[in-house]
Amino acid sequence: MSFAFEVLHRDAGSAARLGRMTIRGIEVPTPAFMPVGTRGVVKTLSSQEIKDFGYKIILSNAYHLYLRPGHKLVEQLGGLHRFMNWDGLILTDSGGFQVFSLARLRKLTDEGVLFQSHIDGSSHLFTPELCIEVQEALGSDIIMCLDDVRGYPATREEALEALLRTTRWAALCLGAKKRVDPALFGIVQGAMYPDLRRLSAESLADLNLDGYAVGGLSVGEPRELMVEMFEVTLPLIFEAVPRYVMGVGKPQDIIDGVLRGADLFDCVLPTRNARNGTLYTSHGSVNIRNSRYRDDPRPIDPQCQCLLCSSYSRAYLRHLFQEREIFGLRLATLHNLSFYYHMMENIRIAITQNRLHSLARDFSVQMEETDD
């Protein structure tokens, strides 16, 4: 296997760490954010544009690609990298969360999850073995174990059932893995119960997987509870492997995760919010649909050098959104992903200089300047 991870520096004032994840000779500096290309595309952008920012890894979703166009077709056409013309790394989510959130009807058993497609209502049995088959057919570089995801609030009994099933499925996923190449990550569950998080992490540790994710967060819980789960769960994961917080993507939440030892993040937030007119800047967020920007000649963020900020005004971007022009969605998405890339770059620099707490305080003040 060509997978490797090493910690290069630890922040003196927190649990944050600067690392390097290497797969197929491609080095990913961590902490890192992964843009989400759920169906094999980061919405409105080309693979080259994602690469030009500096991103080395993106996330796609096994559930969606299994349903359409089908993993066997993608494999027949040379794998997901060739299919979407992306020569960087791909992590595929197993689809557990999507089954939880999108399936019209679903029934969980220890064998797997029987669900009806959100596309056409067809029935499917998604098992741990099929989960691995799909991801290996896609040619992913990092594949995720199938997990049982519960929403918030979940009873203790529900959370225990989900974590025990997630552990059993992880063992089945490991046994079903046929290819040496992809790294396999397990997912720690346990809802909002610290002792169950510990039980989940310790049980999965016995499988000696290549990395571990914290799942079951950003499912409706208060932010304070999410941060508490960072503090509880991240120290339970081996120091020598990547720690991945799934689906968490608000800028302040990312910094809170990094402070507590997280290495990888993904979320649809920057791209989805961009398409809805919300842009992140060095002085908080901007809702470009607001009428106050109708004749505003300023760039979205004077400190940003993306195509939008270097070439167009707030007034022009608002005009594009008012007219529902696709170019406006593209410009906003380019800007938000540029913001996230440089945010992670600044976080890594702050770790090397042992001043992440200082950056976090300044960033918190800046992000409070939110445009309603």
Observed structural traits:
372 residues, alpha/beta, TIM Barrel, eight-stranded parallel beta sheet, 15 helices, 16 strands, 19% strand, globular
Give a quick summary of the entry.
The chain is of the alpha/beta class.
Give a written overview of the molecule:
The chain is of the alpha/beta class. It folds into two domains: 31-267, TIM Barrel (Alpha-Beta Barrel); 274-367, no CATH class. Helices cover 42% and strands 19% of the residues. The protein contains 15 helices and 16 strands. The protein has helices at 47-53, 62-67, 71-76, 80-84, 96-102, 128-138, 156-176, 194-205, 223-233, 251-259, 269-275, 307-311, 314-322, 326-352, 356-367, and strands spanning 4-10, 17-23, 26-30, 32-34, 57-61, 89-93, 106-108, 113-116, 123-126, 142-144, 183-188, 211-214, 243-245, 264-266, 278-281, 284-287. An eight-stranded parallel β-sheet has the order 4-14-13-12-11-10-6-5. A three-stranded antiparallel β-sheet has the order 1-2-3. The chain has a three-stranded antiparallel β-sheet with strand order 7-8-9. Helix 6 (128-138) crosses helix 7 (156-176), helix 7 packs parallel to helix 8 and helix 10 packs antiparallel against helix 15 (356-367). The radius of gyration is 20 Å and the shape is globular. The model has no long low-confidence stretch (mean pLDDT 96).
